[in-house]
Amino acid sequence: MRHHRTALAFAAAASLALPVGLATVPATAAPSSDLIISEVYARGGSTNQPYKNKFIELYNASDSAIDLSGKSVQYRSATGTSVSGVTALSGVIQPGGVFVVGAGSNAANGEETPVDLPGTLNLSGTNGVVILAEGTERVNVPAKSVVVDENIIDLVGYGTANAFETAAATYTGSNSTPGAIARTNSTDTDDNSADFTFTADVTPGTVPWGDPVDPTDPPVDPTDPPVDPTDPPVDPEVPEVKISEIQGTGSVTPLDGKVVKTSGVVTGTHFTGGFNGFYLMDENAKTEARTAGDASDGIFVYTGPKGLDVTIGDRVTLTGTAGEYYELTQLSNPTLVEKTAGQPLNPIPFTFTDNADVREAYESMLVAPQGDYVVSDNYTDLTNYGSLKLAYGTSPIVHPGELFNPVSQAAEWKKQDDLKNSLTITLDDGKSTNFSRVTDEAISYIEVGGDARIGAPVAFKDSGVLLDYRFNAWNYQPTQPVDGNDRSTEPVTFTNTRTAAPEAVGGKVKLASFNVLNYFNDLGEDEAGCEFYKDREGNPTTANRCTVRGAYSAAAFERQQVKIVAAINKLGADVIALEEIEANSAVDASKDRDEALANLVAALNADAGAGTWAFVPSPATVPAGDDVIRTAYIYKPAAVKPVGESRILDDGAFHNARKPLAQNWQILGVEAGENDTVQDSFTTVVNHFKSKGSGVDDGTNQGNANPDRIAQAKALAAWMASEELPVFLLGDFNAYTKEDPMQVLYGAGYTDLGDHFDLSKTYLFGGQVGSLDHVLADKSALEMVTGATVWNINSVESILLEYSRHNANIKDLYAPDQYRSSDHDPVIVGINPIVIKGEDPDPEPTPGPTEPTPGPTDPTPGPTDPTPGPTEPTAQPTDPGDKPTIEPPDAGKPGEPGLPGKPGLPITGAEIVGIALLALVLIGAGIVLIRRRTR
To answer: Where is this region: Disordered (predicted)?
Structure first.
């Protein structure tokens, strides 16, 4: 999320000698006030909220800077009679700028809120009164419509507030409903209900009604005459300096506030899209690598909306005022002295570094990034602002929980986590457009082909990019704003890493885990009072905090189902463990629990052919407390057969999660000889542990509810400890590979196949890839495994391709294919039955012609009859004694003779006899447990 999209200046603003003060600000809440409240976010920190702290955003609607000193933001409860909190203001807001005043927090959910001034007001998330006051004394607000009051600049009442302007604004939902109330435009009509609307897109630092003035924009002097490129040279007393002298050797220009004259070549023009300016670089800039303390040879020139008649390649001389605006050095109020057309400059080689001082030496210069880059984040910034996060190197940033346990390897975990900042940089689109609001402009860097995927290699074009600092981050900017309808305007190309099918994993049967993204055939439109998210034309897409969690309308459901069907039917799996499918009886007690499951199978068979798929029915008895989403199985009857009824683990550890579902299976069509021993049966357990989004945070960097997931892992391991068949645990464990819940399962004897085969990851969060989805095998199950893979069709794709984002932008990115059918990637595992070849009996010997006596010619039974000992395979793979336990015994000492878990002592004669007897017992047990097929 970009922050600070409008200007806030302190000492630097004062040095421009611009009018500040509030002599023109009315002391009433009259229409078209110069200083108004533009957004109220009162749910910070609650479950599902994007930001941790609440905030009140102020907007300067005037054409002059406004000094906030002596003013305050105050809060009163909806039914209160007096103000409960006051935050005194300070600072200056530039024309068209916003100022974010921080407030309290309900919990620790969400990102850090970008604020210009911290505060502690404790706003209610549903009902309350926010007051922008003249002065810092608590104001007395009557319980009525307050439009004119000498102490109130602006006031917003929301929900059931007893004070408001004309009528209170509606703050939709509860504390767990993501969103804020924001103005629809910059005109204050003194009617809260008309001026404010609920929005799920919370944008601190961005005006809510569209494209704001850029945060780096200095105030525009409305009295400046148009620039005439033929004007005579300016007063020679204006010092002529190099761009590097304006930049200086530190982070702040040494010429702040001074009018200077300089020359350079235009390297980028951004007169549209919100930047309102161009980039200038010294044509004699050195090409050698720069170090900390070197001065940059590039600078941004802010022109304001009027622009300037220059194009890329022009050699220009101009005057302007040097300054710092949100840590970007720039010239403002430029006057063009001389212009000569020319050829564009070549970009300067730039090797990635996270050293801010070295980056400062290249600020606003045209550069050619060296080395490898890949896309590392295409979520929030792409959706809202048309920008991508790139990682330096050949792979995206891996979540530290994939590689290190955050408790026992805390230092290594922290070092890995830091890479999300130290190894990344933003690829911006040269605009400040908020595409979540400006939906009639085509979004940048994305199309139906989906080439800007996580991990996709990025190649920079020869024209180069501009390295600058804005929106609180270092960015690669294109030399001109990207046109979302013209991919040729992008400064990079992407290697498309999509595959039409998953990698081969071998095996007679393939298992898979697939999260079907809240597949509900019960729709939001059929639920009374269910609200919805909508597309850019107001059409409903998905249910918004209702009992049902999926599609709102039949049209949206069809779009969702088409994608899921395409993914499953191309997966190549025979048994699929599903997560996030509706439990219809939990939504409506009169319905069959398996209705949605049957609906999905019918859609799959309509596409793949009748009878291709079937589902495992729910057990006759379903434990109480069923969630509205559940786990389930679908399978191909031609490949496998479910054996017995499915089983649900009814354990208190799963009070806040979906209960595990187990099923025994038999592989069909296994070829085996008359005397072969065959293990063709196995058990699967599909899981969906408690999410990280809510619950207690134990402070171990494993998300909320980590203790719950640990307890769930222990209960699962204990449940399967006595299982006689090979066991596979599949599903969404909501835990990364090295986190505590997974360690419990490893300790119980299970192997994570993703880790075992070093597979790609299944999920993206916060710019880091990791696996929350796993397939684990116990010892005997591992012997059946032929291979495994992750099919990256979901997590690496932009959410803009999801069915829920259909028609979110004028460039509709929905396609009826498998890509972004869910937010988790499926895991596929190949398995073979274990067939141990037996020995054929020896043929009857032919009697010798010269030996008439029967003794020598009669074959003895010993050599010809296969005895159980030497020819019978051991029963180890299915013997319960080999099942994993929660606390396995210690292994024997390495390098010494001994048995696992025993001291390494020599074996005595008595022990040999004992071992022989034990072997006979095990062989007998194996005969019982391993089915011998007779053909």
So the answer is: 173-233, 835-903
Domain count, the chain: 5
Query: Is the dihedral angle over the CA atoms 132, 135, 141, 146 positive or is it negative?
Result: negative
CATH number of residue 708's parent domain: 3.60.10.10
State the residue range of the domain holding 312: 243-345
Express the helix, strand and coil content of the chain in percent, nearest 5 each. 15, 25, 55
Q: List phi, psi (to 5°) of 71.
A: -110, 170
Cβ 268 vs Cβ 480: under 8 Å: yes
Model pLDDT, residue 210: 54
Do 422 and 515 belong together in one domain?
Answer: no
Does residue 899 sit in helix, strand or coil? coil
Q: Residue 906 pLDDT more than 80?
A: no
Least confident of 640-644, 826-830, 847-851: 847-851
Residues 661 and 515 in one domain: yes
Say yes or no to pLDDT of 233 above 90.
no
Which of 162, 193, 213 is at the close of a domain?
A: 213
DSSP letter at 473 equals E
Look at residue 44 and tell me if it is in a domain: yes
Q: Determine the average pLDDT of the residues in 832-842.
A: 79
> Going by C-beta distance under 8 Å and a sequence separation of 6 or more, which residues neighbour residue 814?
448, 559, 801, 803, 805, 806, 807
Tokens of 644: 């017995």
Can you name the residues that pair with 647 across neighbouring β-strands?
662
One domain, residues 693 and 553: yes
Q: Evaluate whether 575 touches 640 at the Cβ level (below 8 Å).
A: yes
Judged against a pLDDT cut of 60, whether residue 904 lies above it is answered with: no
Residues 770 and 703 in one domain: yes
* Phi, psi for residue 264 in degrees, rounded to 5: 180, -175
SS3 category, 376: strand
357 domain-assigned = no
Q: What is the pLDDT of residues 235-260, one digit of tens each?
A: 457 899 999 999 999 999 999 999 99
754 three-state secondary structure: helix
**Dist CA 867 CA 32 (whole Å):** 99
Q: What is the CATH number of the domain that holds 292?
A: 2.40.50.140
Structure tokens that stand for 211 in this block? 């494209």
Q: Tell me the pLDDT band of 919, cut-offs 50, 70 and 90.
A: very low
Q: Taking a C-beta distance cutoff of 8 angstroms, is the pair 277, 302 a contact?
A: yes
pTM of the predicted protein model: 0.69
| Secondary structure string (H, E, C) spanning 709-752 | HHHHHHHHHHHHCCCCCCEEEEEECCCCCCCHHHHHHHHCCCEE
Q: Is 86 helix (H, G, I), strand (E, B) or coil?
A: strand
| Secondary structure (3-state) at 524 | helix
340 pLDDT more than 70: yes
Tens digit of pLDDT for each residue in 55-76?
Answer: 999 999 888 889 999 999 999 9
Same domain? For 437 and 517 the reply is no
Q: How far is 578 from 634, CA to CA, in rounded Å?
A: 8
Q: Is residue 861 part of a domain?
A: no
Same domain, 478 and 532: no
Look at strands 773-777 and 751-752 and give their pairing: antiparallel
List, for residues 128-141, the tens digit of each pLDDT value: 999 999 999 999 88
- Final residue belonging to a domain, choices 812, 834, 856: 834
Q: What is the pLDDT confidence band of residue 841, given thresholds at 50, 70 and 90?
A: low
Please name the helix (run of DSSP H) or strand (run of DSSP E) that holds residue 569, with its range, or none. Answer: helix 554-569
Q: What is the CATH number of the domain that holds 142?
A: 2.60.40.1260
Pairing of strands 681-688, 768-770: unpaired
452 plus 517 within the same structural domain: no
Query: In whole angstroms, how far apart are CA 818 and each of 157, 448, 795?
Result: 46, 12, 12
Q: Is residue 85 part of a domain?
A: yes
**Residue 717 amino acid letter:** A
411: its two tokens = 């230092």
- Per DSSP, helices labelled H in 440-512 are none
pLDDT for 750 beyond 80 = yes
- Backbone φ and ψ of 903, nearest 5°: -60, 150
Percent of the chain's residues with pLDDT above 90: 71
